[in-house]
Amino acid sequence: MLVLAAQPVIDRLLDEDSTALAELQAFTGVPVRLQVEALYTPEQYDIVLI
Question: Which among 11, 15, 1, 7 has a CA at the least distance from the CA of 44?
Fold first, then answer.
């Protein structure tokens, strides 16, 4: 799974929400990749199943 989002959103996922992200990966068995999209606002994101 690939999450495309603005830098502040990715930063939060890596910091404050890192435990929840790890739990999601463990529960689903799907690795999650995070990628910054410079043109996205914090309200915009995409989740791509790969």
Answer: 7
